[in-house]
Amino acid sequence: MEIFDPIEYKQMVKEYQDNDKPLDWFDTIYKIANGDYKKVFWADLEPNPYLMDWIKNHPIKKQNPKAIVVGCGVGDDAQALSQLGFEVTAFDIAPTAIELCKKRYPNSKVNYLVANLFEYDNSWFQNFDLVYECNTIQVLPGVYRTKARVAISNLVCKNGYALVSCRSREKSRQKDDIPLPLDKDEIDQFVLSDKLKEISFLAYDDEQVPSVPHFFAVYKRVL
Ligand SMILES: C[S@@+](CC[C@H](N)C(=O)[O-])C[C@H]1O[C@@H](n2cnc3c(N)ncnc32)[C@H](O)[C@@H]1O
Questions:
Q1: What was the pLDDT predicted at 174?
Q2: How far is the CA of 135 from the centre of ligand 1 (A)?
Q3: How many angstroms separate the CA atoms of 177 and 171, rounded?
Q4: Cβ(135) to ligand 1 under 6 A?
């Protein structure tokens, strides 16, 4: 795939998933952008407004709070969190994504690094006051989704928060979609399985035409 084509994209992802190599295609998307972060088709090129609103309304009362951005893509959310005073780690499995972030923000205080959500360093375990996940789970298939959710929850420190943004779907619909949006039962496992406390939950339709349903959820580790 040399330029982005939605049908070729879905076929490519399906092939990798069918061959149980669901992590091996991400870098391709960044490589075809050919050094231009604006050409990464899934990048909004601005921080998520729901993330920004939540933080502005719920400042974390701690000196140098630590945030981590999962699957950070081209870095808008990580950069914004850094500007809001967080000490930010932002990681992605795609080396080309991290190269783009470093080139885009040469003087950034964010620690951008290549890392796999499924194999992160033990020092990250329950180490972050704020964990931001946007659209990583939905690009994974089957058991990788559960593993991803657990790994995300395990980053949250005591009294810390996980903020989760994703596309959503009604249960038993769109089962073959790529990406596969989360249904309510799936996202509820942050509470039911991972024992985080739900602080707020928003289901909304975005402003695209036709609009796309989304969830934006906030969880807290209270135990
Ligand atoms: C749909 S993109 C979303 C990127 C970004 N969060 C955003 O909102 O624009 C999903 C990102 O997750 C990354 N990713 C997928 N699996 C990962 C893993 N196991 N560990 C780290 N990053 C992963 C991909 O490389 C990709 O950048």
A1: 87
A2: 7
A3: 13
A4: yes
pLDDT in tens, 14-32: 999 999 999 999 999 999 9
Q: What is the pTM of this model?
A: 0.97
Taking the centre of ligand 1 as the mean of its atom positions, its distance from the CA of residue 26, in whole angstroms, is 7
User: How high is the pLDDT of residue 3?
Assistant: 65
Q: In CATH, what class is 46-220?
A: alpha beta
Instruction: Report whether residue 27 contacts ligand 1, using a CB cutoff of 6 Å.
Output: no
- DSSP 8-class letter at 199: E
Sign for the CA dihedral angle at 91, 94, 97, 102 comes to: positive
**Which strand (E) or helix (H) includes residue 89?**
strand 87-92
Instruction: Tell me: pLDDT of 207 over 90.
Output: no
**157 and 171 Cβ atoms separated by less than 8 Å:** no
Instruction: List, in sequence order, the alpha helices (H) in the chain.
Output: 6-18, 26-31, 49-57, 76-83, 95-104, 142-153, 184-187, 189-192
